[in-house]
Amino acid sequence: MRGLAVGVGYSDRIWISFDGLELYARDYAGEAGPAKLPVICLHGLTRNSKDFEDVAPYIAAAGRRVLVPDVRGRGRSARDPRPMNYVPPVYARDIADLCKALGIARAVFVGTSMGGLITMALAAIEPKLIAGAVLNDVGPQVAKAGLVRIAGYAGKTVRIDDWEDAAQYIRSINEAAFPDLGPEDWRRFARRTFRTGPDGKPQFDYDPDINVPIKAAGPKALTPNLWPWFRKLAKDRPLLLVRGERSDLLDETITAKMRKAAPQMAFVETPGIGHAPMLTEAEPKAAILEFLARAA
């Protein structure tokens, strides 16, 4: 593990994966006060650490160190020459190695979409690492409509000539989930999704091959059954489930099954939002801060 430059409110961290990839995380220092467990925020399939740039500061202000990795193949983490490694159990091992490198024995996890699946995978391989978890719009079973939608754009080639093109593209695939965003919001969303390529034009901030395992799994990729992982996560630890009211990935039926399987799990719904809440909305932000106030 080594530190690099200091960004706005965070330091850069680099660690080496079990198979030799150089991986990256943002490290936000918590405000001074009594020692508390750190929080690790995990992003979604085509996303990266920039998604938490407004979330990590409010968690850090509550007195917790916040680590926000770029999962392998995304952001500033190396791309994997073996695309079949782009699966939650491998990502979970990377996160376990990050914790080991930093001397973190226990943490609270916040997982958005795929980040929630990684958290569940961690519960299966390193259960003692997880002190509590927030699952953001994801569960052990996912609605087919949402997966079909995501598979329709993940890893696909799109012509983007400038940042306005990038903003329009992001709007085209996300407007149904975020109907109230304005032009400047979409431009900021684009900056979180793209980076400047060698030709000066925006390019996706992820490896297009992240969809290789999805293609290889075929129809089975659309019907994953991760209930054993979820039950391990829910056993003897606090949980909070965040759902977007309009979510096409975590529907009401799956939500009800999760709440029945884990009756102690806290729950909050984000009005007017689809997949996935940004966690800066009033309802989930308040719920997360309340959840963390009760956590170790």
Overview of this structure, please?
- It is built from ten helices and eleven strands.
- It is an alpha/beta fold and 296 residues long.
- It has a single domain, classed as Rossmann fold.
- The strands form two sheets. The protein has a nine-stranded mixed β-sheet, sandwiched between helices. A two-stranded antiparallel ribbon has the order 8-9.
- It is globular.
Our Rg estimate from Cα atoms comes to 18 Å
Termini separation comes to 26 Å
Number of helices: 10
Number of domains: 1
Oligomer: single chain
Relevant CATH superfamily: Alpha/Beta hydrolase fold, catalytic domain
> Could you describe the largest sheet, including whether it forms a barrel?
9 strands, mixed
Q: Report the portion of residues in β strands.
A: 15-25%
The total count of strands amounts to 11
Name the average pLDDT: 93
The level of helicity is 25-40%
Structural class, please? alpha/beta
- Please provide the ordered H/E string of secondary-structure elements: EEEEHEHEHEHHHEEHHEHEH
Give the class-level CATH name: Alpha Beta
What is the global morphology?
A: globular
Instruction: Classify the fold: give the CATH topology.
Output: Rossmann fold
Uncertain runs? 2-6
Second CATH tier, the architecture: 3-Layer(aba) Sandwich
Q: Numbering strands along the chain, what is their spatial order in the largest sheet?
A: 1-2-3-5-4-6-7-10-11
